[in-house]
Amino acid sequence: MSIKRKGRLFGVFVLLTLSLKWTPFDQPTLPADFLLIAHRGASAYAPEHTLPSYQLAYDLEADYIEIDLQQTQDDVLVAFHDETIERTTNGTGAVSDYTYEELKALDAGSWFNEAFPEQKQFQEEGIVRLEDIVDEFGKEVKYYIETKQPFTDGQLEGQLVQLLEEYGLLENVAVTRQVILQSFSEESLLTLHGLDPDIPLIHLYHFKKEPAELSADEFDRLASYASGIGVNQSALTRAFGDQAAEWELDLHVYTINTYSEAIDAYKKGADGVFTDNLLEFIDPLDNEL
Ligand code: G3P
Ligand code: CA
After folding, report:
1. Is the torsion defined by CA of 140, 280, 277, 112 positive or negative?
2. pLDDT for position 254
3. Which residues contact 15 (CB under 8 A, 6 or more apart)?
4. Fewer CB under 10 Å: which end of the chain, C or N?
5. What's the burial of 132, exposed, middle or buried (CB within 10 Å: 0-12/13-18/19+)?
6. Taking ligand 2, which is a single-atom ion, which protein residues have CB atoms under 5 Å away?
7. Atom 7 of ligand 1, nearest CA residue
């Protein structure tokens, strides 16, 4: 797949023309294997974590769709970022205080319509289960899933791996990389590694004190279970990228919403970026008009 890439559906362009930006050809380009990870789906154009957001990410040929994972009161795995539901639904309180049936009844789309009135508007979008997403896309997409609630004594991780196995997404996963799992929690990553050591794992860091820095011992330790590191964009340096390469770790950077920022991350050693804004990475001239 080439970058800038060809969108799967011209209709997507008709839908999103107003958002389109295009990087001139004389700028440096990203290599074809540079990963574009659709952060919460194509979340610049549709309410995050909803099926339309993931459908758009698929249409725009993201390499991975990113899903934050939480567990409901009745132990259902749902795609949801925040611990509480105020920001993106018409409800209040913690995700873990509600059953899935209760969450499903909430409106998870209107906030987007109000925040982004210039974008396509979405009606009756609800919170979805991880199962709904893998049921919809199967092996048509690759999944980059974050455990957000690692305080469930391994229950969330166990359920997650079981579900992925049931859908055949872990067959030969070390080679296919059909699924990548990520977490800020070492405990969660170690649990996942214990459940299936073949699953590629990304240890996420948010370096508040910049620049990003880890000791040799810390690199040794994380390289014993993880295949890569996820790091906040503002903390990334070339020195850190060189260290990640020395330990043969993938380096993915969040959250990058312009092509030039992705180029900058690439020059510092990144292998991929999380982005809300997939249209930044598509060449309109590749699309049939
Ligand atoms: O998973 C990478 C990035 O998404 C981490 O930040 O807060 O958007 O989950 P957050
Ligand atoms: Ca995330």
Report:
1. negative
2. 98
3. 45, 120
4. C
5. middle
6. 68, 146
7. 81
How far is residue 156's CA from residue 126's CA, in Å, rounded to a whole number? Answer: 21
Q: Which long-range contacts (CB under 8 A, 24 or more apart) does 212-215 make?
A: 212/236, 212/237, 212/240, 213/240, 214/240, 214/243
Q: What local confidence, expressed as pLDDT, does residue 21 receive?
A: 44
Ligand 1 centre distance from Cα of residue 144 (Å): 11
- pLDDT 10s digits, 215-249: 999 999 999 999 999 999 999 999 999 999 999 99
Q: Which of 81, 149, 183 to mutate to test the pocket of ligand 1 (most atoms within 8 A of CB)?
A: 81
Q: Is 80 in the pocket of ligand 1 (CB under 6 A)?
A: no
The model carries a pTM of 0.92
Ligand 2: distance of its center to the CA of 179 in Å? 14
pLDDT of residue 151: 75
The candidate with the shortest Cα–Cα distance to 90, out of 71, 112, 66, is: 112
Concatenating the DSSP letter of every residue in 202-266 gives EEEE--SSSSP---HHHHHHHHTT-SEEEEEGGG--HHHHHHHHHTT-EEEEE---SHHHHHHHH
- The residues carrying an active-site annotation are 39, 81
Residues of the chain short of pLDDT 70, as ranges, are 1-26, 284-289
Do the Cβ atoms of 258 and 226 come closer than 8 Å? no
* pLDDT for 5: 62
List the alpha helices (DSSP H) in the chain: 10-16, 51-59, 100-104, 110-115, 130-137, 155-166, 173-176, 186-195, 216-223, 238-246, 259-267
**Cα 42 from Cα 60, distance rounded (Å):** 8
Which domains does the chain possess? 11-85+128-286 (3.20.20.190)
251 to 222, 228, 275: CA distances (angstroms) = 13, 6, 14
